Amino acid sequence: MLDLIYLFFALACLYCIYDCIKPRNYPPGPAWLPFFGCILKFGWLRSKHGYIYTALQELSRTYGPILGLKLGNQNVVVISTYDLVKKGLLQEEFNSRPDGFFFRVRAFGKRKGVLFIEGPMWTQCRRFTMRHLRTFGIGQSTMRERLTLEAQNLISHLERTSEHGPVLMHTVFDVAVLNSLWFMIAGHRFLYEDPKLQEALVLVHDAFRLTDTLGGVISQMPFLRFVIPELSGYNELMRILENLWRFLDEEIEMHEKDQSNDQPRDLIDAFLSEIYKNNENEDTIFDRENLLVLCLDLFLAGSKTTSDTLATTFLFLSLHPEWLKILQAELDDVVGRSRPPTEDDLSSLPMTEAFLAEVQRYLILAPLGVPHRTEKNVSFNGYQIPKDTIILFDYHSVHNDKTYWDQPEEFRPQRFLDEQGRFSQSNYSLPFGLGKRRCLGEQLARSSLFLFLAYIVHYFDLETSTEHARPDLNGYDGFTISPKPYYLKLTRRRSDHPGTIATW
């Protein structure tokens, strides 16, 4: 028995030594501890700075723009600066997605959907999704019509809400942004007062704040779900997922009950049609579970970032009212007060376009984007990065790289204007990523950001509420940086045309 105990301790010591050895020529970073890697130091820095990306940036300042970490059982490499991030995004070996407990639990323990898969399945699912989103709106005149109607309804909703006092702004764009996408996915829009939708939107906000870009501690040490399911966040994660699955399952059931042989009306119809065609094919992406996870991906990623960007933009405007006046003056000059703005006006609104470009550079809400993974051993800038290493691209460092941005800490939309005052897009700004994993909803997001911003600036004056705390530009850390609750007083601007905005 004593020999067995000695053997056990010897093996344990050998394992601890082995677990602290970094792979050969791995990027520099903090020393590793057995079982934990450098998660304790990372956790302390995150607590100190309040955000994951700022904690990683402190480490990058010490160890360099290619930072090598081990968090729990995960190898993680963080890549910073414009040149290196661009190089990495365009390198084929970095195009995979993480495959661990957190990234599978949302898909019933499998690899489903379009956000966290790779290879032929991802190619097929992305191609199907993009083709049918275009069929049902994206890039078509119908998308502009739907966005215009949603903008009109948003103004009417704000008008009604502002009659009762200051408006709670951090979630006010959720329904309008989701409706712009959901009509293409499910063929209908939601009412602002829909209780089921409001419950689902609360779950979305909870989900983004519960986890971080790496999936949280439950991803780095998944065994904790058995030891401390409450403290590790596992119980809360499953509560959120089960309720979102139920909400989306009801959407799919409505389509199944109303399925016909006619032309599909939306993406869910089209996917169900493919399920029926492929019901005897086992090697297919078209099954009901995959449809549910695809809807989850689009529901979460397709609405949250755009609505939060709008909420943070108006938070910024409330703190810098001089920019509100500049945008209103340009709209009044180009659009006038006799009609609402349209997307066709954008090319004649260079300051508005520059303002939006600077917002996406300066107020970056997804500083680390969506994590990537190496699909095999990779040589990158002289370092060796092992297969299955999680890769984080620091977009915040890209948009603040002093090699390409003059005084990046300042908010200056003029940097996107040429000498003639015309808008000039910078190649060094990557708000939607780059390469094969570039955001598939970019066109809809750009149109939504412009139209919803232009409508509110056109129709309302904004000021901070004296009845509530001053808005705080520092948001909540999580998978993205979410704006904190804040209130604004909205006052309808005088218009040269009579009547009210049309509503549905």
UniProtKB/TrEMBL annotation:
Residues 1-16 form the signal peptide. Its cofactor is heme. GO terms for cellular component: cytoplasm. The keyword Heme applies. InterPro entries: Cyt_P450, Cyt_P450_CS, Cyt_P450_E_grp-I, Cyt_P450_sf, Cytochrome_P450_fam2. Belongs to the cytochrome P450 family. It holds the Pfam family p450. GO terms for biological process: organic acid metabolic process; xenobiotic metabolic process. Keywords: Heme, Iron, Metal-binding, Monooxygenase, Oxidoreductase, Signal. Heme binds at residue 439. The gene is LOC105432897. It comes from the Eukaryota. This is Methyl farnesoate epoxidase-like. PANTHER family: CYTOCHROME P450 15A1, CYTOCHROME P450 508A4-RELATED. One of its GO terms (molecular function) is steroid hydroxylase activity.
